[in-house]
Amino acid sequence: MKKNSSVVVDLLLLLLAITVLATPAFSDLVLSKVERRIDVTSQIARVTKTLKVVNSGSESVSEFTLTFPKFLGNNLAYLSVSHSEGKGKAKRSLANLSVKEAHPKGMPDSISFYSVSLPKPLSKGDTLTLEVVAAFTNVLQPFPEKITQRDIHLVMLQESAQYLSPYVVESQSLSIKLPNARIESYSKLENTKVQGSEIKYGPYKNLAQYSYAPIVVHFESKAAFAVAEKLVREIEVSHWGNVQVTEHYNLVHRGAQLKGEFSRLEYQDRPNPQGVSAFRHLLARLPPRAHSIYYRDDIGNISTSQMQSDSKKTELLIEPRFPLFGGWKTFFTIGYGLPLSDFLFASEGKRFLDISFGSPMIDLVTEKLIVQVVLPEGSKDISVTTPFAVKQSHEIKYSHLDIAGRPVVVLEKNNVVPDHNQKIQVLATLQEVQNIIQKCLAAHDKLEASLRDLSRTGDIQTCKAARKSTDSLLKDLSKELRPLLASLQSFPSASQISPKVEELVAKERELQEKLMAKHTTVVEGYEKKSSGRDIENRIASQQQKIIALRQEVDDLLEFIDEI
Amino acid sequence: MAATPITSPIPVAMYPTLSVVTLAIGLVITAFFFIYEATSSRKNRSLGKELAAAAVASVFLGFGSLFLLLASGVYV
């Protein structure tokens, strides 16, 4: 109760601070529509915001500021902003934009600011749609904080019904998706509706800057509040064909603490088992073709586990030695081997390892994650690239048959959520697609060259021969492209890139068709021996389209290059 | 800038077979060495034969033990 009231007091102080302070010199962006969806079905609160930004001022703007109240900002584990185009079903998301923490002067301490750099400066009157995904840990507070074995697990979420932003908001709505269980209470403001297990606030129109309406939702959560206090993940690379991953977990249940005693009899009573707040199973998603999986702890092997594998993933369901109630801890080790060719690649004389960063367990929050990458003896020039900030250091490990020891890169990060797990694997496939498109463009150039030759020499036969060879070359290249596109689709993290890549391929195909059509017209023209000017007129419109398409393809290639 | 996957120089599935074969050959040559020592007298024995048998046997046994380690999961 005390914690609750202190946070509410914080919120009121925040409101006061904001109204008292003069509004700062933020640019005249207006948010014409804000839709927020908060998903609290697991222990991590995921907020997805769609913001439509309109530049109503006179200068073009290249930066956008995102704000969170401090008690949320402190618990922000993952933030990604992307911008999308199109409406409804034709929506395509483009790349992630770079987000940096910002501390603008003169702002109250109770707001966290993040500055997003826009891809193109937004000029006067233009609109832009931004999609923000943020994951917060520790914002679902168990309330009551201590429960007995028989009680249900109730948690509380505090948020703002009105979007806190330094810009004026014209229309906004908020929808909170709760787990399919009991809703104890929720703040009732105007325009509040409950539909099944979703609470909708809004739409609210025409709100000033920094408007804030605190709401509290108190509901039952059946999710497993499993938090790994410390996770040490060792990835050992051996050039003899194996990547061995060993993970040491220190797991704790961070929900409402268990008060009183644990009765095994009541826990196993059928038909009314008492102990809803505990969790028994943990699911881990390992890469496909994982082998030699073991699950043990200091006592010995733990046999309560199941494994199911298919071509896309290997699912490991483990059950610790006892069910975990609030405040209980357990520790165990999971190890598995992975084939080397799935993770180690050579390019430009260097070798790089492409592997996921965090824990493979779904919905596990890691408070302290230490990843040790052990490279073979004699590795030099080691560098690490991660899509988010980590702390790096180097060590040496002496293992089997070693003389000088194996270099180890140690990466540390706090507050890791499963959203951090995805992005590292996409680079390898993208390069292949780019290569094939470059080859297609080279084939197009050959066609153009053959046309020029024709105009010089008038030799129709060689022109036709060139056309035939480029036809077959382009067919081969499109065959190569198809499996790559399919594999790109299977990467979840490529969901923003793959529509772009598909667009590129479609444009290239269009360009191909137009070039072929132009070639045929010119060759026919020469066969009929019509004058040069006739031919030019016929292909003029086609030529323009070809030039425009070629420009677009080049732009897309550059864009993908930058990623 | 294509990225080619790196694989082991010898297919991983062959490790158990290779280890059995090389260890067997190594042990056979070791056996030949011992039999030679047992059946030859001081005058008849030849240093060249002893050294050759020992060298070849050690090479095979060495590789055999490497592949045995790899096949049993200790990826050295």
From TrEMBL, chain A:
Keywords: Endoplasmic reticulum, Membrane, Signal, Transmembrane, Transmembrane helix. Its main location: endoplasmic reticulum. The keyword Transferase does not apply. Residues 1-22 form the signal peptide. It is a single-pass type I membrane protein. It holds the Pfam family Ribophorin_I. Subunit of the oligosaccharyl transferase (OST) complex that catalyzes the initial transfer of a defined glycan (Glc(3)Man(9)GlcNAc(2) in eukaryotes) from the lipid carrier dolichol-pyrophosphate to an asparagine residue within an Asn-X-Ser/Thr consensus motif in nascent polypeptide chains, the first step in protein N-glycosylation. N-glycosylation occurs cotranslationally and the complex associates with the Sec61 complex at the channel-forming translocon complex that mediates protein translocation across the endoplasmic reticulum (ER). All subunits are required for a maximal enzyme activity. Component of the oligosaccharyltransferase (OST) complex. This is Dolichyl-diphosphooligosaccharide--protein glycosyltransferase subunit 1.
UniProtKB/TrEMBL annotation, chain B:
The keyword Nucleotide-binding does not apply. Keywords: Membrane, Transmembrane, Transmembrane helix. One of its GO terms (biological process) is protein N-linked glycosylation. It is found in: Membrane. Coiled coil: none annotated. The keyword Membrane applies. It is a multi-pass membrane protein. Its main location: membrane. One of its GO terms (cellular component) is oligosaccharyltransferase complex. The chain crosses the membrane at residues 20-39, 51-75. It holds the Pfam family Ost5. Signal peptide: none annotated. Belongs to the OST5 family. Component of the oligosaccharyltransferase (OST) complex. Subunit of the oligosaccharyl transferase (OST) complex that catalyzes the initial transfer of a defined glycan (Glc(3)Man(9)GlcNAc(2) in eukaryotes) from the lipid carrier dolichol-pyrophosphate to an asparagine residue within an Asn-X-Ser/Thr consensus motif in nascent polypeptide chains, the first step in protein N-glycosylation. N-glycosylation occurs cotranslationally and the complex associates with the Sec61 complex at the channel-forming translocon complex that mediates protein translocation across the endoplasmic reticulum (ER). All subunits are required for a maximal enzyme activity. PANTHER family: TRANSMEMBRANE PROTEIN 258. This is Dolichyl-diphosphooligosaccharide-protein glycosyltransferase subunit OST5.
